[in-house]
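Lab notebook, bench 4. Still working through the backlog of constructs that have no structural model yet. Next entry is a single chain of 288 residues. Request: give me the C-alpha cells for it.
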Amino acid sequence: MAPFSIQRIAIVGLGLIGASLLQALKQSPIARSRAIRFQGYDPAFDRDDIGRITQLGLDRFEEDQHKLYQADLVILAAPVTTNIALLDDVVQWAPPETLVTDVSSTKQTIADRAAELGLNFIGMHPLAGSEQQGYSASREELFENKPLIICAENRTISTQAARDLLDLMESLRCAITVMSPEEHDRIVASISHLPQLLSTTLINHCGRNLDTSGPGFATLTRLAASPWSIWRDIISTNGTHIAAELRSFSRELEILADDVEQGSLQSIDERFRRANKLYSTLNRRTST
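Model written out:
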C-alpha cells in the first residue's frame, strides 16, 4: 500500500466553509493518526482573528505566500472569482505535484482556468453552507451527511493524492458524488441558485406585509439573509444555467396562476400530492 500522500494542508480563505473544513479535517481519524499539519491564510484577519482560528485547529497562520503554498494539498476557500484568481498564485508558489481543490459554488470556470495553467486540480463543492458567514459561524459537524460533489478528469481522480483526498472527505461522513463541472453547474442552478433568487425575490415582493407574516414566511425566506458579495460571483460564473432555471420556473408559475384563476382544483391537488411525496423523500434523506 502506498504511503498517505497528504501530510500538509493549506487552506486559503478561513470563513464559514474554510474554518469548518479545518475543524472537521483536523479531527478526522486520518489526520489525527498521521499528524497532518494545517496552515492557512485569510487577508481579512487581524491579530484577534488569528488567535481564534489557531484555537480552532490551525497550526500556522502563514502570510508568506512561498511558505503558504508549500503543501501537499491546497484548498481554496475564498469566494468564487477570488479562488479563480488564486490559481495564478498556486502556479507561482506551489510545487508542481501539489493537488489543488476548491469549495466554490460553481465549477466550470475554475476548472477551465486550472486546466489552462496545467494544475493538478479537483473541483469540490460541499453542499453544506449557511446564510451566516465567517469563521465564528463555523462548526466541525457542518459536512456530516451532506452531499459533496467532486469534479475531476479521469487522469486526476486516479492519482494517489486524489484517492487520499477522497478518503479524507469520506472520513467526514460526506455523501460523495462525482460528476463533470458542466453537469455540476447545471444541477446546482436548479437546487441551490434558483432557491436563493426565489427567496430574495419573494421577500422583496412581500416586503410591505412583513408585519403580518408568520413563521412559515420566515422559513421560506431564510436564504434572503445571504450576502450579495457571495452571490455576485456565483451569478457571474453560472449565469446561463441560472437564467434557464428562472425562465423554466416562471413558466411553471404562469401555469399555476392560470389553474388558480380558473379554479382547476384537481390540477392544484395533484401538485400538492406530488410535492408532499417529494418532500417526504427529501426529509428522509436529510435526516439520515
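Notes after review: The chain has two domains: 8-179, 185-287. DSSP finds twelve helices and eight strands in the chain. Flag for follow-up if needed.
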